[in-house]
Target: 8-amino-7-oxononanoate synthase
Amino acid sequence: MDRFIERLKTQLKLHRQAGLYRQPPEIFRREGASLLLAEGRVLNFASNDYLGLGVSEVLRKQVARNFEKYGSSSSSSRLVSGNYSLIAAAERAYARYFGYEEALFFPSGYQANLALLSTLFDSGTVIFFDKHIHASSVKGLALSPAQLAGYNHSSLAHLRKRLERGGEKETVVLTESLFSMDGDLLDVSGLAELKDRYGFLCIVDEAHALGVLGERGCGVARPVADIAVGTFGKALGLFGAFLLLPAIVKEYLFNFASPLIYSTTLPEAHAASAIDILALLAEGDESRRRLGEISLQMKTRLRSAGFTVQGDAHILALEIGNEQKALEASNRLREKGIFVLSARYPTVPLGKAILRIGMTALHSEEDVNVFIQSLKEVMEKI
Model:
């Protein structure tokens, strides 16, 4: 036991020295675009609540009514006594809304990616994946018997070279539509051309796009995605996740996906709330417009102030580089009332640390002004 404890202490010490130690502050509550911490109120630029539904009074009351009506737990796996008709109805509603044949709900996006990627393929499959895919996708791939081949981030030219060497194997391309750290968008039309030529199965993680981008928030990847991954925990303001997929794939996962088979399913109240959310999404054009405008304003103002920032939508990546410097910038901003994530290795490549700025429809022009002025003052001192 002593040797075990000492090993953990040593690894944590090295983690601190490298600027990679994680110790998130305790949050007492969330109010609009702000968080209340022990040291006071801070503006929150580290949220994925892109449309503000996570603090919506309307949705809060609907969810409360649903849990009062249906109870707090399904108390079973989906494949035992948890296959409620309301959950199936909600899945059909999501499939219709987003334009797919079927949908399948999961307790988390991590579990959805794990179930899909660890189950669906065999040793006769080769999966070409963008090297900046989410950690949950990486873990799912690690559990898959498929042959794996990464391609350079957002490089369709590199992907094309990979595909040309793919041979006669069953071929899959795995990517994201809006990358969670880089903030850049998938070249859908370019990928569609490759799909027409090489005929691969395409899986697109749309976790950061669904609800926000595209008509009625339906995302951007439908022209290429045979299977899409979505989440309730970001723009949709709830919790859990879902796959949008062909009926045959849903049937296959029901029979072979261990993360689905051996987990308690989400409760009926969640399914009822998910249906309520679709109505809010359909009426969310004004929030989506506001989010697009404030995100562009933040990006433009940051660049005008001399900062290097990337991002095609509501996720902005402000380049820092050094892990210690990024952590210090984040900590100093918090002292000034600004909460923003210092994304460091292994979330991003080593030496490529960023401040990851999450914009929401709740942010105002004054919030942008405060952020930029505070950032200037902090970076001058570092």
About this structure: The longest strand covers residues 170-176.
